[in-house]
Amino acid sequence: MTTTPGHIVVVGAGLGGLRTIERLRSSGYEGRITLIGAEAHPPYDRPPLSKQVLDGTWEPERAILRGRPGLAELGVAARLGTPAVGLRGTTVALDGGDSVTGDAVVLATGAAARRLPGQPDDVATLRTMDDAVALRHRFGAARSVIIVGAGFIGAEVAWAARRRGMEVTVLEALPVPCARALGPEVGALAARLFTEAGVDFRCGARIAHLKDGRTVELVDGTVLSADVVLVGIGAVPDLAWLDGAVPRAADGLACDERGRVVGVPGVWAVGDVAAWWDPDAGAHRRGEHWTSAVDQATRAACDILDAQPPPATPPYVWSDQFGLKVQVLGRTETADEALPLHGSGLGGGEAKGTVVGYFAGGALTGVVSFGAPALIMRYRAFVASGADRATVLAQAEEWQQGSSPAQPATMEAQPK
Ligand SMILES: Cc1cc2nc3c(=O)[nH]c(=O)nc-3n(C[C@H](O)[C@H](O)[C@H](O)COP(=O)(O)OP(=O)(O)OC[C@H]3O[C@@H](n4cnc5c(N)ncnc54)[C@H](O)[C@@H]3O)c2cc1C
């Protein structure tokens, strides 16, 4: 934008919406900000929901990023518990009949838990704080759980349930967990985390029917039942309320490289709802990760204010599974080769300490680690520069011999 907007409306009071506002203020923006949130809760963090909140080590309130006083300190007019129901230009229509017009609008409405066709209401999903509190409550009286989906949420819930001594069955349609992101060998290592924790892990399992909140029928005729059934198969943006006002990418709101929604002047989108243009992939891509929501919020705020954004960093995601931090730095889906850099997990040894490099055409595109948080960060600059295989393997060898990196890289602080 060439002139600073007098009033910025942020729709979605989650991580991306809050971080956008914080960045606007820390960059010196003094104009009006209105925050529209569908949930009554003030902005809260989702990663602890499937970790500390579910396992009971945190009360839910601890996941709140900024309460109402904190929002007031930021000079934000917050309308929480009031979903946006329409968008025309930069005017946002609200449930109840009001509307708010901004000079700029940021859409940060996240995504909703993906459901299976015909999914009964008493089958659990985990996306919101209310979902986490309800699941924790159900776990208090449950002895068994069936989890559909062995992605990050499925693994974290399985681990929380095992620690409570519950019988856990995990049904995964693909041959290994996170098959597209991890590939077959590293996916097999991820599968071992389930089985070594005592989970009844069934890959290639196809669901025919979720009968009710306790019974699952598989295509092969097997019928399984448990006290709780949870579906954890990813998330989808809810775009129905936009009613065609904003063009869609294949998945999410199509945005350019600065977060401007394509074809809608004055509107930006960040976080899980947004599919930003990725010049490397030559396509719009939607992420569902904490760090990408924060990065996009920063970049969109800078663009609105015509300020220089910080340099781009490689994508990063983490998950806490079975007592290990699993981390993914950079991109793995485009790789044609996955090579062990540290540890013996790929050869059948202990998962902890295993670090794997992903290469496309001999250039490093990503790194995955299991219980090796300090080690994986050393590869950040190599991922960013697409270092060649020989350089990466030689460096791994040197670090295996025990020498320290000149400058260990750090990531922006993430939730514990
Ligand atoms: C249980 C769980 C655990 C996770 N763990 C990890 C992890 O370990 N590591 C990691 O990298 N990522 C993790 N993630 C992903 C990460 O939390 C998300 O990528 C991040 O929250 C995205 O931020 P967002 O602002 O786009 O969406 P959200 O945080 O979902 O916020 C969107 C907000 O918009 C509101 N909203 C929706 N529709 C409307 C509307 N019409 N009007 C007004 N408001 C609306 C919603 O109520 C919500 O509060 C996890 C996610 C979940 C659900």
**How many angstroms separate the termini?**
36 Å
Bound molecules: flavin-adenine dinucleotide
CATH class of the largest domain: Alpha Beta
| Low-confidence sequence ranges | 405-416
Task: List how many beta strands DSSP finds.
Answer: 25
CATH topology of the largest domain: FAD/NAD(P)-binding domain
**Major sheet characteristics:** 5 strands, parallel
Shape: globular
Q: Provide the helix percentage.
A: 10-25%
Report the portion of residues in β strands.
Answer: 25-35%
The CATH superfamily label of the largest domain reads FAD/NAD(P)-binding domain
List the strand order in the largest sheet.
Answer: 3-2-1-7-18
Number of helices: 10
Rg calc: 22 Å
Oligomer: single chain
CATH architecture of the largest domain: 3-Layer(bba) Sandwich
Instruction: Tell me the count of domains.
Output: 3
Write down the overall mean pLDDT: 94
Helix/strand-derived class? alpha/beta
